[in-house]
Amino acid sequence: MVVQKFGGTSVADPDAIQRLIHIVGTARERDGRGPAVVVSAMSGVTDSLLAVASAAGAGRIDDALSRLEQLRERHLSTAKSLAGKEARGALGEQITSHFDDLMALVRALGVLREVSPRTLDVVAATGELLSSRIVVAALAEAGFPSEWVDARRAIITSADHTRAVPLASETDAALRATVLAAVEAGKVPVLGGFVGSTVDGHTTTLGRGGSDYSGAIVGAGIGAREIQIWTDVDGMLTADPRVIASPRLVPQLSFAEAAELAYFGAKVLHPSTILPAVERNIPVRILNSRKPDGAGTMITAEPSPNSMPLTALACKRDVTVVDITSSRMLMAYGFLRRVFEVFERYTTAVDVVTTSEVTVSVTVDDRRHLEPIVEELSEFSQVQVDHEMALLCAVGDRLRNEPAIAARAVGVLEEVPLRMISQAASRRNITVILRQADLQHAMNRLHEEFFA
After folding, report:
1. What is the C-alpha to C-alpha distance for residues 355 and 339, in angstroms, rounded to an integer?
2. How far apart (Å, rounded) are the C-alpha atoms in residues 343 and 334?
3. 359-364 and 312-325 beta bridge pairing
4. Which terminus of the chain, N or C, has less C-beta within 10 A?
5. Coil, helix or strand for 425?
6. Are 308 and 253 in contact (CB under 8 A)?
7. What is the CB neighbour count within 10 angstroms for residue 54?
8. DSSP string of 196-227?
9. pLDDT per residue over 330-370, tens digit each?
10. What is the layout of strands, in order, in the sheet containing 297-300?
């Protein structure tokens, strides 16, 4: 049995959901049961719901209500196209009831002029709760026995609203009682990703990208053979197609390589998606719902024995480099602790770190608190900040045992001014920081060298 997670573009409209039904049917015919299905909100819906909450909190009630009405019509229209006559009335009532409740909430928020994280979760969760109901009705109309599973009963989380963390033992028990029970009863369980609830029943969300995470949590909780992430790309590519014109498909890579690529900017996977699969050693496959016959990319515990010297490249734009220089650092202990305590106080993550005898250089891509960070650092050091930088990361398990690959990668970039160079302790990646203006050229040179 597999868990199939479908992203927003894979449930965007009736045509996309019809493709989903075909994919589910193929898996059911192959395995004889299941699959368990996890769906995102319809494409663009979560962003629209967050805009509704923002408008309501600012007192723009008419704007918020107008947006909700548009969303209501979109969901009702999709439901009408997919649900059978008998199910259409009940499904329409469920959709209407959801939006009536949201409209009442919006009016209250417009008066209060305040949207708490707990209230924001209630609004943001609506997309997945509705898309999963529509998919259940569409599957039933296509002849597949299906069951809607309320994600708030299946994913039990902490009370950290908008970024909740699943509670492992409680969630595993809930998944067995809901999703696994439906599979064992011969049905296709369908639940929304991204959504959960606290132990006492308050709606939570897992943060943006949390639908993929939900898919992995479900797969781990029910002991799936494979977790499939159905999206709108063919799989993991050797480089960002917005930077490299013709990247290649990566047929297989390791969990460790995928985590490195996700962290350093690859957009196919949310980094947290990997964690539940790693813990249970469940393969994750990335597939294109528009090309269901494609092989996709398989992510496994171990790398492919026939892997390339490098697996893929990843990049981040709009990176800021902060140089902290002080003679107090020379032969002193405690200096680095003092530096990183400043970043910790302002909850700002650091990506890359390099040090010399008197200087530590770090990169950040969250600049919201950069000004007070620089002010505090300036109290005990000289600080220089460089904007419009970029991060370029080459990833491959073979880097661990073949140092010539790293030398070759840096050598290819000999004419590119490099601001920082770092190789992590895992030795699965080599990362360089360079001017954003040089990123295109540097990516092209590396890709030609290793993947052409």
Report:
1. 12
2. 15
3. antiparallel
4. C
5. coil
6. no
7. 15
8. EEETT--EEE--TTHHHHHHHHHHHHHT-SEE
9. 656 778 889 999 999 999 999 999 988 788 999 999 999 99
10. 146-148, 188-192, 36-39, 2-6, 226-231, 284-288, 297-300, 252-254
Tell me the two tokens of residue 319. 């990176």
Q: How do the domains of the chain map onto residue ranges? A: 2-232, 312-451
Distance from C-alpha of 373 to C-alpha of 163, rounded to nearest angstrom: 24
For 292-402, where are the alpha helices, taking DSSP H only? 335-345, 370-377
Q: Is the dihedral of CA 156, 159, 165, 167 positive or negative?
A: negative
Cβ partners under 8 Å of residue 245, min gap 6:
none
Can you tell me whether residue 390 is helix, strand or coil?
strand
Strand positions, DSSP E, 143-182: 146-148, 156-157
State the Cα–Cα distance between residues 65 and 67, nearest whole angstrom.
5
Cβ-proximal residues to 362 (8 Å cutoff; 6+ apart), any chain:
321, 322, 324, 343, 350, 351, 352, 353
Non-local (6+) Cβ contacts of 93 within 8 A are none
Instruction: Pull the structure tokens for residue 390.
Output: 């970029």
Q: Do domains 2-232 and 312-451 have the same CATH topology?
A: no
Reported confidence tier of residue 229, pLDDT bands at 50, 70, 90:
very high
Q: How many CB atoms lie within 10 A of CB 424?
A: 14
Query: Are 351 and 391 within 8 A, CB to CB?
Result: yes
Q: Does domain 312-451 have CATH number 3.40.50.300?
A: no
**What's the CATH class of domain 2-232?**
alpha beta
Q: Look up the pTM and report it.
A: 0.86
Contacts of 310 (CB under 8 A, 6+ apart): 394, 395, 396, 398, 399, 405, 409, 446, 450, 451
Residues 403 and 411: their CA atoms lie apart, in Å, by 13
| Whole-number Cα distances in Å, 16 to 7, 208, 291, 295, 303 | 10, 22, 12, 19, 33
